Amino acid sequence: MSTSSDIKPELRTVAQAPSSVRGTRLTLQAATLGRRDAPVLADVDLDIARGEILTVVGPSGCGKSTLLRTLASLLPPLAGEIDQDGHPLAGPSAERALIFQEDALLPWRTLRANVELPLAIGRVPRSERRVQAEEWLARVGLADHARQLPHRVSGGQRQRAQLARALAGRPRAVLMDEPFGALDAQTRAGMQDLLVEVLRGTGATVVFVTHDVDEALFLGDRVALLGAGRLLAVRDIPRPRDRTALDDPARVALRRDVLTSLGT
Amino acid sequence: MSRPAPRAGRYRRPLPPIGRYALRVAALAAALGLWQVLTSLDVDLWLRFSQFPTVTDVAHAFADRVSGADYWTDLTDSLTRIVTGFLLAAVLGVAGGVLVARSRLAEDLLGPLLEVVRPIPAIALVPVAILLFPSNEEGIVFITFTAAFFPVLVSTRHSVRALTPVWEEAVLTMGGGRWRILGSVVLPGALPGIFGGLSVGIGVSWICVISAEMISGQYGVGYRTWQDYTIVNYPGVFVGMVTIGVLGWLTSTTVELLGRRLTRWLPRTSYVPGARPTPSRTLAPARPAPAAVRTEQPSGTEEARDEHLV
Ligand SMILES: Nc1ncnc2c1ncn2[C@@H]1O[C@H](COP(=O)(O)OP(=O)(O)OP(=O)(O)O)[C@@H](O)[C@H]1O
Ligand SMILES: [Mg+2]
User: Fold this and answer.
1) Are the C-beta atoms of B173 and A97 separated by less than 8 Å?
2) Domains of chain B: which residue ranges?
3) Are A98 and B170 inside 8 Å of each other by CB?
């Protein structure tokens, strides 16, 4: 949590629209999540600080996507309360962008047109849209593919385009559902660095779902463990986003803890 | 990799090999030849071709007609009727289909009515049209409209219901509202299905416009064809039929091509059944083709292939 204050000064240094780009605080109080008649997570208490990167790990089917969909207001909470900066969530909004686990690019739009969409919704003028979309695509290394249709690029390129689309709308919170799930270890490490790079300066709050413990420990300021229909624990991560911290004893101990709690 | 990028989605369709066009023309010519042989020899083997006009009779009658003014009046009358009816059906069918698929209230209010009216053949609505409309003209347009309306409505409804939910959810989490979802997700996503309905619709529209003209028209290809029949002018009847065939083919090709153009984003398999490797091209090192150009060729032909089958 302490790192949230480390990130915030950086966003002041960003030239573009510093006032519109801030993190947001998301709080779940005694929340029950899931679909009607089928609760998946019960009694979740979680406070996600502004600008924090919270990673979420848990076995398949434990409700990670359910948590993100609830935070994006695509699913209403079954009980309890979910607040954004102290106000209850009122429907989906551009402030909380969701990067879906499945491919959610619109297949009839080129990558650039997909990235332009949140800008169009945000009433950015047409010429400005184009420039910003190209910038975002270049930032995720897709400048050469801006005019390709999604099905003409690789799976990893689609995921990067989704990342660009989510960030282009300058959301205050980015909810990411296993965005690097289908990638090999090498590309995945590259994407993690890219993500850190791209997030730097946006100041956005990030909830990052993954089933890869190492990824969770690298990216997150904190890691939330889900399992058995509950939020098992939330742990602070020592030296986040530091590749040299792998053999840090505190990190090793945390990794062991996380793996054992996932094993049960 | 960077070379083909700027052309993506706007690639030119290369023409199919000349041999395929030749084959199509030959097939048509063979059918005409068979007709000519059967009729000029007055073949009477259970099927009786002795009274049948020959191809040359029809061709002469056609030439006569085309040089007269009536033929073109008939043609433009029929075309105006079908275009008006069909466009109305396209707009209202898509609107109705989207409404019924997306709104429970609309489904409850309109659903039963539509289901009851749908099984009635459009041509059976002639009495209704006569009662309702001040002139035959509007009646015929109404019947044409009804014919195309239901196929368009039903396929729009189905394809809107079959949309991948995550597309809509993505736009929701970008802050998009109802209209944005309608314009950016529902309509483009349902387009392949909508064009399925439009293709069926234009076909039934022709059937109904011709039938309606036969029953109650003044001018129009169907009216003229029926007139020729009542005065036992068989070559004239065939001129009418050929005209209907050609017009129908033109209009449905227009719909088909428009549909292809608008749904070019649909992913296609690169698998081509029965495709043979063409060694002549790849084995010819004499032509100094740059590598980039050569790698583009297969993707271009692969996509063009099924676009030319109909
Ligand atoms: N559309 C749905 N309708 C009903 N139940 C669902 C639906 N999607 C998921 N569930 C149920 O909710 C539970 C949690 O699903 P969820 O998608 O949140 O899991 P997850 O943690 O994201 O898993 P994974 O790591 O495999 O993506 C599952 O047990 C699943 O059966
Ligand atoms: Mg999931």
Assistant:
1) yes
2) 20-52, 57-262
3) yes
B57-262 folds as MetI-like fold (1.10.3720)
Token digits for A102?
Answer: 């499945």
Domain locations in chain A as residue ranges: 2-105+172-263
Which ligand 1 atom sits closest to the C-alpha of A59?
25
pLDDT at B267 over 80: yes
Q: Which two tokens stand for residue B54?
A: 């020959």
The owner of tokens 């690169």 is B270
ipTM above 0.85? Answer: yes
Closest CA to B173 of A13, A68, A87, A61: A68
Read off the pTM.
0.80
Query: Which of the two residues, A116 and A181, has the higher pLDDT score?
Result: A116
Residue nearest to atom 28 of ligand 1 (CA): A61
For residue B253, the one-letter residue type is T
Q: Class for domain A2-105+172-263, per CATH?
A: alpha beta
With CB atoms and an 8 Å threshold, state whether A104 touches B166: yes
Residues near A55 by beta carbon (within 8 Å), at least 6 away in sequence: A208, A209, A210, A215, A216, A217, A219, A220, A222, A223, A224, A237
Reduced to 3 states (helix: H, G, I; strand: E, B; else coil), residue A227 is strand
Ligand nearest to the CA of A62: 1
The upper half-sphere exposure of residue A230, i.e. CA atoms within 13 Å in the direction of its Cβ, equals 7
Residue partners of A254: CB distance under 8 A and separation at least 6: A217, A223, A235, A237, A238
